[in-house]
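Colleagues,

For the teaching module next term, I've prepared a clean inverse folding example: a structure given as tokens, and then the sequence designed for it. I'd like students to try predicting residues themselves before seeing the answer, so please don't circulate the second half yet.
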């Protein structure tokens, strides 16, 4: 059975951004609607059905953050990806804390944006996974019941905290987990500021699960924000993956 097209709402006050996004999205089968302000986006979302929202973080009116907060009050599971021209880590962390599923900084790769949208929608559409079910991504398999991790069938010996970090990331594969959330989940809220401590554990974990720890394939860094485990959609790599859009779409943006 053919899967229904993904209906996406693009919210950005810059017409050039909306014009640049519409063709590649439509070419790949997305149904695209547009809004230029947060107020307009909220009205559209309350009056229609959408599978995902691309939301500019910096808009006139109520702004992206407040729009996100209001969306979450009536659509807690709707995938929302934030668009920003600012390389401001505080904004990214705040957006994630407000409930954004992901963020993309302009100018961005169209291929990356499409992959992020599909990943977010797939997570929402996927049936709930039992908490004790093994997780397998690429060559890494984690069994939460046996607290066992293998790569290519070979056991990897992890410390308790290394396992907890990996479990936290793999259960959220494809999504960035902020430093504070990861520290709180593994060590408790009193340790949410101990970022260097976390980095030490991640370096050790990469040595155990990555073929090349200096060029990680699985445990990825979102600089100054947090970590994400590679999405299962990346494995195995399919021929021509990502085809259909331009390698990059250069968006008009200041200070990028």
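(Answer key — instructors only)
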């Amino acid at each position: 059975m053919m899967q229904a097209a993904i209906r996406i709402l693009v919210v950005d006050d810059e017409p050039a951004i909306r014009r640049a996004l519409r063709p590649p999205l439509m070419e790949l089968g997305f149904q695209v609607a547009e809004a230029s302000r947060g107020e307009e986006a909220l009205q559209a979302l309350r009056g229609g059905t959408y599978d995902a929202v691309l939301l500019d973080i910096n808009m006139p009116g109520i702004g992206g953050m407040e729009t996100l907060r209001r969306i979450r009050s009536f659509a807690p599971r709707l995938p929302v990806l934030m668009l920003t021209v600012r390389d401001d880590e505080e904004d990214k962390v705040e957006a994630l804390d407000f409930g954004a599923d992901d963020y993309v900084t302009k100018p961005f790769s169209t291929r990356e944006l499409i992959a992020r949208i599909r990943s977010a929608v797939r997570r929402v559409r996927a049936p709930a996974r039992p908490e004790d079910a093994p997780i397998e991504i690429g060559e890494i398999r984690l069994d939460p019941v046996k607290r066992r991790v293998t790569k290519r069938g070979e056991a990897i010996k992890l410390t308790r905290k290394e396992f907890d970090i990996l479990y936290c990331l793999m259960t959220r594969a494809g999504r960035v987990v902020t430093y504070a959330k990861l520290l709180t989940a593994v060590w408790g809220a009193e340790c949410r500021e101990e970022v260097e401590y976390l980095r030490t554990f991640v370096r050790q974990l990469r040595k155990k699960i990555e073929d090349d720890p200096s060029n990680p394939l699985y445990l990825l860094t979102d600089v100054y924000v947090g970590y994400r485990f590679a999405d299962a959609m990346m494995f195995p790599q399919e021929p021509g993956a990502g085809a259909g859009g331009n390698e990059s779409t250069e968006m008009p943006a200041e200070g990028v």
